[in-house]
Write a structure and sequence with these properties.
Number of helices: 3
Structural class: mainly alpha
Shape: rod-shaped
Radius of gyration: 35 Å
Largest sheet: none
Distance between the termini: 82 Å
Strand content: under 5%
Helix content: over 70%
Length: 124
């Protein structure tokens, strides 16, 4: 099973925008902005719990990774179905080509059979 860090690396490599891992300074500023909002009664110095922030980040990464995996699987299934349909079409087309090629090969063989063989001068 992949860790959240590995999933994030895969998502970044695929070009998916991922949230940054929360640092303590950023968490404290976010909590302070939230607490400064009207009607907030919490202590601005408390800051957000880093464990909670890490769990929220991991949950966000897991959610993004599930969506990415589902999209990738759907794309793979579409490609497989397209390849199957192409194969069927080629098989339907092949007998017509084979008949045309066999007919021309038979005609060329008949022409060769009509020509008299040349004898080599050494045998002659």
């Amino acid at each position: 099973m992949l860790t959240a860090d590995q999933k994030e690396a895969i998502l970044r490599g695929a070009g998916v925008a991922t949230p940054a891992f929360p640092s303590p300074g950023v968490l404290w500023r976010q909590q302070r902005q939230h607490d400064a909002a009207p009607g907030s009664r919490t202590n601005p110095q408390a800051g957000m719990d880093t464990d909670l922030a890490a769990k929220q980040w991991a949950h966000a990464i897991n959610t993004l990774f599930i969506a990415y995996s589902a999209a990738r699987a759907a794309r793979s299934l579409r490609k497989a179905e397209e390849a199957r349909q192409l194969s069927v079409l080629r098989q339907l087309q092949c007998p017509a080509r084979a008949d045309a090629e066999t007919g021309s090969a038979a005609a060329s063989g008949a022409r060769k059979a009509r020509r008299p063989r040349r004898r080599s001068r050494a045998m002659g």
